[in-house]
């Protein structure tokens, strides 16, 4: 590794790459070091739709989400970014007030009684950015490299020993051992990627338990979910879970029945009561920033966190 970097960002998931772009585009000579390339991260597995999930949904998190909505919506006009504005419904088993984050969206409303599917108590219709993560991560890596950055695949064992005045820790689940921070808990998620049979709207039936049902359409594929197993580390897809997801999604969206399976993926959401975005003074003019623990909302919160960090450094 060269000694000249102004900043070293550790991690090449959505949080690390977005942070690295924000620093490189602000003029800092920035390097990314990561144990795994973007295509082997949790970020690659995500659905992914804008909206905080399995994280705090208040205070600074809401502000990060608002910035995320603004940036992702802007990128929806860029063909290389693989983001589209998609409409759909989120249904609920119990009647409850709309979550605070819903009010940030310009296009949202409660479902009329006639629109609520059988077996549900209510829900909302809204439009939000849907991100095709494999292509979006490639876009982020390319944008970072065009800003002069470089990515090296190499594990880091000691953050403070890295040779740069600014070090940023974007290691997701890795932070549990690296910091160490036992507050970061894995919440395992399995998705099934199928060929898109013509679905144009998303469907979400979230739950507080380990099983939920969702379908996020991209151009060629639909990402179907889902699961949320707290404390589970196993990255091997479970066939029973695959069948359960296919069955439940086909009940919710009959068009999905018999859709061709393209991939089954598993990722570990780096869950924490709230994402950790804060600086540690290392002395001698050196600073270590932490930016990890975004739970089920790393795509949603990544730009808000990266921009706040870049602003603080300036
Ligand atoms: C099934 C599923 C669905 C999801 N759906 C959504 C959604 O719809 N919307 C949304 O906003 N979010 C969603 N998420 C959550 C989102 O994917 C995560 O919050 C996000 O990917 C976390 O990004 P990250 O960059 O922090 O971590 P990761 O993507 O895991 O990247 C971590 C990086 O750090 C590196 N690293 C770790 N330890 C070290 C080390 N010691 N040395 C060097 N490098 C290290 C890794 O190699 C990797 O490059 C979903 C997640 C899952 C699993």
Overview of this protein structure:
With 314 residues, the protein is an alpha/beta fold. The chain has a domain of 178 residues: Rossmann fold (3-Layer(aba) Sandwich), CATH 3.40.50.720. The protein contains seven helices and 15 strands. Helix 1 runs parallel beside helix 7. The protein binds flavin-adenine dinucleotide (FAD). The site of flavin-adenine dinucleotide has 42 residues, from helix 1, strand 2, helix 2, strand 8 and strand 11.
Compact description:
By secondary structure, this protein is α/β, with parallel strands linked by helices.
Highlighted features:
314 residues; alpha/beta; Rossmann fold; nine-stranded mixed β-sheet; six-stranded mixed β-sheet; 15 strands; 26% helix
Which CATH first-tier class of one domain would you pick?
Alpha Beta
Q: What is the count of DSSP helices, taking H or I runs of 4+ residues?
A: 7
Q: Give the low-confidence spans.
A: none
- Structural class per helix/strand content? alpha/beta
CATH superfamily of one domain: NAD(P)-binding Rossmann-like Domain
Order of helices and strands: EHEHHEEEHEEHEEEEEHEEEH
The number of strands is 15
Terminal CA distance reads 25 Å
CATH third-tier fold name of one domain: Rossmann fold
What share of residues are in beta strands? 25-35%
Kindly report the average pLDDT value: 96
Write the CATH architecture name of one domain: 3-Layer(aba) Sandwich
